[in-house]
Amino acid sequence: MTKPVVIVVGADKGGVGKTTVSRTLLDYFNTNNVQTRAFDTESPRGTLKRFHPEITEIVDMTTTPDQMKIFDTLNSGLSVTVIDARAGLLSPALASLRDIGFLDAARSGQITFAVFHILGSSIASLDEIAETSSFMTGAKYFLVKNFINDTQFFQWDESTYNSYFHRIKNATELTIPKLNQMAYEQVEVASVPFVNFVANKGRNEDAANHSFVLRGYVRHWLANVWREYDRINLTDLAGAKSVTRGGEK
């Protein structure tokens, strides 16, 4: 049986585009034929589920019954579980994973665990790195600079940033580039996965009438995002091999 893979995407700061990153991960795994399910922790109304309703369940990760829905079913045959942690939940979620013994299971190799920590541009976001570092033993830790919201990361002093970054052994940096604003907004309106928008499909996989120009912007952007995922061998994490090169069809 394939070893379960759990990926938590989150940040303690809001407005950094964590759900956008979760959506790109689900598109990437789906295109690479990796069985995936997702949990949206923006209970009771989730954003991720709007884009990936077939594979996403809304949960309240702070409650024991919903924690059981996620972690008691890791051997369900689906190799990757993506958890989109709502703003402010990353540190409490990691503490809960420690308390239920999940982090111990990851350290012992029973589960592959990865954290995509979406960074903001403020020093408070760097403080999050220090706070989460104690949970990262046995986990694959990705620090994600997400430019989707015009975030400017160069407000940080380089030496200050490095002092935080190097506290995490084997942390890996990722960059999510800026997507054309009108293209981003049209995908939001369409409420479809990025790959469906590029393929000119609607919510029910039917043919749509998305702009050729905006589809091109999304295709180019997604290709760049997926090159980052190829660079870190993300499909290897799930025990699969990449069958695509970026978002190009």
Automatic annotation (TrEMBL):
InterPro entries: P-loop_NTPase (IPR027417). This is CobQ/CobB/MinD/ParA nucleotide binding domain-containing protein. It comes from Bradyrhizobium icense.
